[in-house]
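Please fill in the sequence for the structure shown.

STRUCTURE ENCODING:
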């Protein structure tokens, strides 16, 4: 089965639609890793999912918002951080939210309804229905497996109602990466109004938001964390406390597995490249790699 990575002509598009016509997915097993469910599909089903992903990208392109940054071609982590860093100086207030157990909370009927309203055809809809229903052994009509080919784009679609409503208000800046999103506003009143809409829409989607952890509402002057960075008006970006905690945790695992100081140094260099990658000149370089290497050694003592 040939998998097309994009559609430059109608023939390729029609070919992929024919490949999934009347087809169903076959699940081979499930497993849990760190509290998240993963599915093992048969080889043919994996190929079908890749074809379905190409078709969903094509068919949902007019529907999905550019403000949803985790989708292919929408900018990713670094694009989201660059954008917020560029505009944050103009806004006084910020609200940052994260959805509790996002994949586990996705309602199948609501998601399939969003696909139907987007004009997805019956064959593609059936592939998605299988993708959702087959791993749902308790038959709750809820939850989506992690790590699957279709999960990121379906995760992007599920919160699309929020993306569209937030995007209509030109007084706000709104950016989302999967289930983590930020709203910037110039006045407290505009921010409160946006927060009320966020709670209403997420409630309609049967989602809950973190109220204490992974949540921040306040002035941009105080800085806020998003996607591993601390963003502050008129200052360079820096790694967030959570990002540093993860750095230390992974370094500790490496050390406990027998990694020496040279291996730790290589790991810190790799992490430092990620920190600055795609953000040339925007991240604080004070102390360089040595600063974080020394920080890790102190934490491991």
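FILLED IN BY: designer on duty
SEQUENCE:
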């Amino acid at each position: 089965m040939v998998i097309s990575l994009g559609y430059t002509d109608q023939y390729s598009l029609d070919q992929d639609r024919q490949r999934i016509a009347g087809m169903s997915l076959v699940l081979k097993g499930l497993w849990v890793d760190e509290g998240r469910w993963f599915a093992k599909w048969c080889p043919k089903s994996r190929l079908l999912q890749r074809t379905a992903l190409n078709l969903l990208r094509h068919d949902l392109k007019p529907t999905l918002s550019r403000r949803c940054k985790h989708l292919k071609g929408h900018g990713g982590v670094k694009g989201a951080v660059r954008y917020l860093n560029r505009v944050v100086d103009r806004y006084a207030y910020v609200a940052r939210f994260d959805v509790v157990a996002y994949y586990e909370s996705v309602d199948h009927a609501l998601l399939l309804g969003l696909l139907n309203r987007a004009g997805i055809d019956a064959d593609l809809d059936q592939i998605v229905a299988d993708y959702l229903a087959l791993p749902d052994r308790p038959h709750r009509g809820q939850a989506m497996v992690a790590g699957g080919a279709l999960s990121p784009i379906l995760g992007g679609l599920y919160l699309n109602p929020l993306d569209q409503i937030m995007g209509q208000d030109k007084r706000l800046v709104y950016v989302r990466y999967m289930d983590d999103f930020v709203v910037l506003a110039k006045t407290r009143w505009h921010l409160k109004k946006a927060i009320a809409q966020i709670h209403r829409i997420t409630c309609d989607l049967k989602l809950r938001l973190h109220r204490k952890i992974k949540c921040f509402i306040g002035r941009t002057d105080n800085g806020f964390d998003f996607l591993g960075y601390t963003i502050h008006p008129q200052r360079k970006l820096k790694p967030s406390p959570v990002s540093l905690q993860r750095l230390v945790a992974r370094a500790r695992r490496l050390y406990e597995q027998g990694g020496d100081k040279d291996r730790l140094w290589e790991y810190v260099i790799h992490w430092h490249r990620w920190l600055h990658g795609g953000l040339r000149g925007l991240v604080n370089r004070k102390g360089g790699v040595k600063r974080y290497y020394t920080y890790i050694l102190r934490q491991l003592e």
